[in-house]
């Protein structure tokens, strides 16, 4: 019986952007299933969208992928979550060299905690290397157009949040 290859792609996804989507789609070329996992920390949450709103957006964006992409959330250590869901790999996107140092430290700590859990770094597609959820929110809050950076369903939710 073949093992199902599961990867966890953790992040805040506040909101999910086309850069995140590109990474998930490329990850699906290598893995059978990707769990887009929202890291939830109730003690330190200044997110625009609630965890449930982010889960809904992710589910809507990947509806066509069926069971190959799952949206979930977790609290605590990522390595514990990955073990719980049977994932052998953590996916991390790198936009710029500046991302690498932090991501490398996290990967080494995760390896210390769970030596069999691998971290796979993927370069963000060249069309998306400058996109971040933080920047998308800032531009929308100032009345800018981010329609090329997020799916239509996410854009609608962003506009609703910033109407008032």
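-> sequence recovered:
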């Amino acid at each position: 019986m073949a093992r199902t290859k599961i990867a966890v792609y953790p992040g805040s996804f506040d909101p999910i952007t086309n850069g995140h989507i590109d990474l998930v789609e490329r990850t699906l070329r290598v893995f059978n299933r990707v769990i887009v996992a929202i890291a939830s920390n109730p003690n330190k949450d200044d997110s625009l969208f609630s965890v449930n709103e982010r889960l809904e957006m992710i589910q809507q964006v990947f509806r066509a992928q069926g069971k190959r992409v799952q949206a979930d959330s977790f609290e605590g250590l990522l390595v514990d979550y990955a073990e719980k869901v049977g994932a052998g790999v953590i996916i991390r996107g790198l936009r710029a060299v500046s991302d690498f140092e932090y991501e490398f430290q996290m990967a080494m700590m995760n390896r210390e905690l769970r030596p069999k859990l691998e971290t796979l770094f993927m370069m963000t597609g060249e069309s998306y290397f400058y996109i971040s959820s933080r920047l998308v929110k800032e531009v929308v809050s100032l009345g800018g157009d981010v329609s090329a950076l997020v799916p239509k369903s996410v854009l609608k939710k962003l506009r609703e949040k910033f109407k008032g």
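The CA atoms of residues 106 and 112 lie 10 Å apart.
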